[in-house]
């Protein structure tokens, strides 16, 4: 029996609603195999913040370091500044565990309405650099409270950081159809983005089977809406990747179905799997949150833990349930979170 210990951070808002449903689906996918998941629940997030003044304990990183993966719901609460929740939990986990790749697969799903008329056959992956770039703590303010008030934010791009993200993306492209698009803005952002372009070209040059196309982020965003089918692998900096992945997720329907993985590809530290969506305070407590994003993130976790067969089982089960028309209200259905989860468990049992 292979046992994986998983740190469970259900977090805030709808996180604790979709998390148990996803855990039940993953447990049932493992049933009858030689894989077992042992869940270590960590009650961190905004409630913890209110009683302790921090999002998670000081030794949180140490506590999770020996676990095999982190399964995250969502963090964020309307009464706590987002900078507190993000920099108190998500960003430290990504950086301490060197989860330098954020991977977001985007695929058309059956039974899911899309805002696009032409939304069949979308199948792309966004590889976002996850630990440096525009999201940096370097900067500050001056002249506070005066008419000369100013703010400065320093983007940081390193050769090491850009190279490893591009290597990962080029490797992935070479396993897919060989097309790699790089998101840039070197016409306007003349220091960091020209550097990005140079490193991307150098690294991609080491993959003769990969066809690299640098594309300006504004034109790329438009094309992502007009013809998402024309993309396969996109590599982007932290900020550009963040924005592109929400646009891409929107093209296939609800943000409630999109998964993401924060990877330490060398597996020196645990990786973290989470849905793309946030804590959705507007629907919390109603039992109608779509659990598919959390479940699909769980499938990515099974794949990363070395069980691609189980990951495929979960994906096929959720596809078959969606194509049967059973869905939560965000997809136009009337089912509850738990009903969708139960149907996916039943589909797995019948596989
Ligand atoms: P959000 O993703 O929480 O919600 C956006 C819209 O999508 C809302 O109308 C919501 O009801 C809907 N939605 C999201 N997930 C859904 C699901 N599973 N089923 C059905 N509908 C769903 O983004 P928003 O409103 O910008 O942020 C809310 C809070 O979440 C903020 O505090 C934000 O900082 C945080 N957040 C956290 C993230 C994370 O934990 N990784 C990611 C994004 C936002
Ligand atoms: Mg985002």
Number of domains: 2
The portion of residues forming beta strands comes to 15-25%
Measured distance between first and last alpha carbons: 21 Å
For this structure, what is the CATH homologous superfamily of the largest domain? Isopropylmalate Dehydrogenase
Walk across the major sheet and give the strand order.
2-1-3-12-11-4-5-10-8-9
Low-confidence stretches: none
Alpha plus pi helix count: 11
Q: State mean pLDDT (0 to 100 scale).
A: 95
In total, the number of strands is 12
Predict the CATH topology of the largest domain.
Isopropylmalate Dehydrogenase
Keywords: Manganese, Metal-binding, NAD, Oxidoreductase
Pfam families: Iso_dh
Organism: Pseudoclavibacter terrae
GO molecular function, one term: NAD binding
Topology:
Elements: E1 2-11, H1 15-30, E2 35-41, H2 46-52, H3 60-65, E3 69-74, H4 82-96, E4 101-107, E5 123-129, E6 139-142, E7 150-153, H5 159-175, E8 179-184, H6 192-204, E9 211-216, H7 217-226, E10 233-236, H8 238-251, E11 259-263, E12 271-275, H9 292-304, H10 308-323, H11 337-349
Parallel strand pairs: 1-2, 1-3, 3-12, 5-10, 8-9, 8-10
Antiparallel strand pairs: 4-5, 4-11, 6-7, 11-12
Helix pairs in contact: 1-9, 1-10, 1-11, 5-6, 7-8, 9-10, 10-11
Description:
The structure is a single chain. The protein is of the alpha/beta class. It has 2 domains: 1-100 and 258-351, 3-Layer(aba) Sandwich (Isopropylmalate Dehydrogenase), CATH 3.40.718.10; 114-252, 3-Layer(aba) Sandwich (Isopropylmalate Dehydrogenase), CATH 3.40.718. 40% of the residues lie in helices and 20% in strands. It is built from 11 helices and 12 strands. The protein has helices spanning 15-30, 46-52, 60-65, 82-96, 159-175, 192-204, 217-226, 238-251, 292-304, 308-323, 337-349; strands at residues 2-11, 35-41, 69-74, 101-107, 123-129, 139-142, 150-153, 179-184, 211-216, 233-236, 259-263, 271-275. The strands form 2 sheets. Strands 2-1-3-12-11-4-5-10-8-9 form a 10-stranded mixed beta sheet, with helices on both faces. Helix 1 packs across helix 10 (308-323). It is globular, with a radius of gyration of 20 Å. The two termini are 21 Å apart. Residues 14, 74-76, 82, 90, 255-256, 274, 277-283, 289-290, 293, 328, 330 line the site of 1,4-dihydronicotinamide adenine dinucleotide. 1,4-dihydronicotinamide adenine dinucleotide binds next to helix 4.
């Amino acid at each position: 029996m292979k046992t994986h210990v998983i740190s469970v951070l259900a977090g805030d808002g709808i996180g604790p609603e979709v998390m148990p449903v996803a855990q039940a689906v993953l447990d049932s996918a493992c049933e009858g195999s030689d894989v077992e998941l042992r869940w270590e629940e960590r009650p961190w997030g905004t409630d913890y913040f209110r009683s302790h003044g921090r999002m998670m304990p000081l030794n949180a990183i140490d506590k999770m370091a020996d676990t095999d993966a982190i399964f995250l719901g969502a963090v964020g609460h309307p009464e706590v500044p987002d900078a507190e929740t993000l920099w108190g939990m998500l960003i430290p986990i990504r950086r301490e565990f060197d989860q330098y790749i954020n991977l977001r697969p985007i695929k058309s799903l059956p039974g899911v309405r899309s805002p696009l008329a032409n939304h069949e056959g979308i199948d792309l992956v966004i590889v976002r650099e996850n630990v440096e770039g525009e999201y940096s703590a370097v900067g500050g303010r001056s002249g506070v409270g005066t008419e000369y008030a100013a703010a400065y934010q320093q983007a940081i791009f390193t050769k090491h950081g850009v190279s490893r993200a591009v290597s990962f993306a080029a490797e992935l492209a070479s396993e897919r159809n060989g097309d790699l698009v790089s998101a840039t803005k070197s016409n306007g952002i003349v220091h960091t983005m020209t550097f990005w372009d140079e490193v991307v070209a150098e690294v991609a040059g080491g993959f003769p089977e990969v066809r690299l196309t640098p594309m300006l982020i504004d034109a790329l965003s438009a094309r992502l809406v007009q013809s998402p089918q024309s993309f396969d692998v996109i590599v982007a900096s932290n900020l550009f990747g963040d924005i592109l992945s929400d646009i891409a997720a929107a093209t296939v329907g609800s943000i409630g179905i999109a998964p993401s993985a924060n990877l330490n590809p060398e597996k020196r530290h645990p990786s973290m799997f989470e849905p793309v969506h946030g804590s959705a305070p507007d629907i919390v407590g109603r039992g109608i949150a779509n659990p598919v994003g959390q479940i699909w993130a769980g499938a990515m976790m099974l794949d990363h833990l070395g069980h691609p067969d189980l990951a495929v089982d979960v994906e096929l089960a959720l596809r078959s349930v969606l194509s049967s028309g059973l869905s939560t209200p965000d997809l136009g259905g009337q089912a509850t979170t738990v009903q969708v989860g139960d149907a996916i468990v039943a589909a797995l049992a019948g596989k």
